[in-house]
Amino acid sequence: MSAFLEVGAAGLFHAGVLFLVAAGLQLVFGVQKIVNLACGSTYALGAYLGITVATTAMMWGLPPVAAVATLPLAAAGVALLGPPVERLLRTVYDRDESFQLLLTFALVLMAQDSIRAVWGATPRQVDGIYLAFGQVQFLGARIPVYNLMVIAAALALALALGSFLKRTGFGLLLRATAENRAMAAGLGVDTRRVYVAVFTLGTFLGALGGALVVPSAAASLEMAVELVVEAFAVVVIGGLGSMPGALAGAVIVGLLRAGALLVFPEAEVLAVYAVVVAVLLLRPAGLFGKPA
Known about the structure:
Strand order of the largest sheet: 1-2
Largest sheet: 2 strands, antiparallel
Oligomer: single chain
Number of helices: 13
């Protein structure tokens, strides 16, 4: 029982990180109708910048517990790349999806080379934060408090995003633009401003996922591509463009991976994609997606 609880908590921790990246991907696709492969790059940049910011803060005397507060600052720094990248993506908004995929994948490669040039090819990690908050004992299981903090943060952000989209004026503009861009523009909505805001928010969410994961795992050059694969598994399961689907898909993928690691590690990836194939066969639009 203790082993299952520990693995389940680890799976939910991974699900929380996945949800942040997938939520950014869903938001960008829902409003801008662009499949953003570069979400993995924002995740990797957030991880590496988070390591730099947190390590620098601790070098200046900030205790590890307080250094966690600097991780969102790293995500905000990566979000500054949102407006110029969105300006570049305007060239492919109304073109075939293949152009969108090629351009965003080119951004992945460019970001990977930039990371190698700045931080080097050796994996990096920020030390001293993960266990600084201690552990909780429950039914014999020892669960790091940091995992619970990330899970709670992901749930809080999910609720905040839902409220933002449904109960604020700008959220209504986002939904109107997502439903019918031409009609929204005809009614006076500045769709370019909406697109910049959406892409910047999506960039921040992806970078925040990367920044929050580095206290528990090393950042490496391969993490961008690995995360893109998992993020698309999440959106296929949950439904492309659905925020509740992103949350449900992230939980399913996180728990499946954790369970496979406990029972049959060799089937870690197979377990996730078996569910992806089953969803594509039984419900192609995803669990929460709307059929075209």
